[in-house]
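Example S7 (structure tokens).
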């Protein structure tokens, strides 16, 4: 599960600045992965809201590239 997230974050890292990666992607932890749903943990509600507005599609696309299927994200 963590190796999937590690691979996905490497894809994201190539697409965003180091500062944005360190601020918005690095703090995310994968909590669960079941069927087509990936559950992620973030530091707080503000972080969650900002992430959903700005990086949700990039996270979904990178996970799709790694696992080969479209996934739903639960934060």
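Recovered sequence:
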């Amino acid at each position: 599960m963590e190796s999937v997230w590690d691979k996905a974050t490497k894809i994201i890292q190539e697409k965003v600045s180091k500062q944005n990666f360190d601020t918005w992607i690095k703090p995310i932890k994968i909590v669960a992965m079941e069927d087509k749903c990936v559950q992620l943990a973030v530091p707080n509600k503000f972080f969650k809201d900002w992430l959903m507005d700005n990086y949700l599609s990039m996270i979904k696309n990178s996970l799709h590239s790694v696992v080969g299927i479209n996934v739903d994200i639960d934060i």
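Notes on this example. The CA atoms of residues 14 and 21 lie 9 Å apart.
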